[in-house]
Amino acid sequence: MLQADVRRELAGAGCALASAVLFGTMPLLATTAILHGGSPASIACVRFVLGGIFCMPLLQASHASWRLSMRQLGHAALLSLLLASTLLLLFSAYSLVGTGMATALHFTYPVAVLALACLAFHERLSLLNAMCVGLCSAGVALLASPSGCSGPFAGTAAAAASGLTYALYIVLLARSGLRKAPVFAATLWLSLFAGLATGAYAASAGTLDFSMDWQGWTAAGCLGLFSTALAIALFQKGVFLCGGLKSSLYSTAEPLTGVAIGLLVFNEPMTLTSGAGMACIIGATAASALTS
Q1: How far apart (Å, rounded) are the C-alpha atoms in residues 46 and 199?
Q2: Residue 48: CB partners within 8 Å, gap ≥ 6?
Q3: pLDDT by residue for the chain (292 residues), tens digit each?
Q4: CA distance 39 to 18
Q5: Taking a C-beta distance cutoff of 8 angstroms, is the pair 192, 52 a contact?
Q6: Would residue 213 be called left, alpha or beta, if left means φ above 0 and alpha means ψ between -120 and 50 degrees?
Q7: How far is Cα 4 from Cα 204, in angstroms, rounded to an integer?
Q8: What whole-number distance in Å separates Cα of residue 283 and Cα of residue 150?
């Protein structure tokens, strides 16, 4: 029994880590698509629609059904609104405060998951957990300070808000009826519903524009396959295997990937204050992994 639990934990950790690396490529791919003609809302829509399309052959290869019960469809529709909100906020932040800064602020979500689990589901908050929350809050404050963040306050707020909406998504996903659905079927419906939501938002805002060049569409296609169909499916599997909190904590590689891309590819500046803020956030989430 213990060996089965260990194997389950290791499998969940592997899925979460793999999804973190795939999600970590999203800043590069999204920024490339935006630079080549796409608006943030349009790229979000394209990413989800293509992600849903890519799930179809993956479902066929795994010999799983795409059908969900009405209850599961309802859960997928609700969760897709949180996914759509997360991506719209994050993509907007990329163009305002840079990919590295936006990724670091977004990655407050593991601590937000911890806080939501304690407040909404009355899970016990240990001293180490409380220290991690304080350390992460200090990191956000450093990144939001004028010396730590060169972009407007709106970008900082959007990135931080994307972390909160994603945390709520994780907490609800772990307790949803999608646990019993084939993972690619759940990803298919989540992606399609989120694509409709982001498309509707872009149309209402007058930013629904698909006039990207081939480089933009290539980046969008990679977003759909790697950062959507595969990444969302792997993260879901990790959540179902080892829980929402542990999965989010195993995703520590995600901000490291995003920040590294921001520094190496986009030559984004790293100030002492912003570096300290990122170190606080990453340190807080890594220390949280020590909790039971």
Answers
A1: 8
A2: 83, 84, 87, 191, 192, 194, 195, 198, 224, 228
A3: 557 777 787 888 788 888 888 888 887 888 888 888 888 888 889 999 999 999 999 898 888 888 999 999 999 999 999 999 998 998 888 778 876 677 777 877 877 887 887 777 776 767 776 777 777 777 766 765 554 455 577 888 898 899 899 999 998 998 899 988 999 999 999 999 999 999 999 899 888 888 889 999 999 999 999 988 999 899 988 888 877 767 776 776 676 666 667 677 767 667 777 778 778 877 776 776 665 5
A4: 28
A5: yes
A6: beta
A7: 50
A8: 23
Q: Tokens representing 284? A: 């807080």
What is the 3-class SS of the chain, one letter each residue? CHHHHHHHHHHHHHHHHHHHHHHHCHHHHHHHHHHCCCCHHHHHHHHHHHHHHHHHHHHHHCCCCCCCCHHHHHHHHHHHHHHHHHHHHHHHHHHHHCHHHHHHHHCCHHHHHHHHHHHHHCCCCCHHHHHHHHHHHHHHHHHHCCCCCCCCHHHHHHHHHHHHHHHHHHHHHHCCHHHHCCHHHHHHHHHHHHHHHHHHHHHHHCCCCCCCCHHHHHHHHHHHHHHHHHHHHHHHHHHHHHCHHHHHHHCCHHHHHHHHHHHHCCCCCCCHHHHHHHHHHHHHHHHHCCCC
Amino acid (1-letter code) at residue 173: L
> Can you give the pLDDT at residue 288?
62
**How is residue 211 written in tokens?**
């006039």
Within 13 Å, how many C-alpha atoms sit on residue 132's CB side?
24
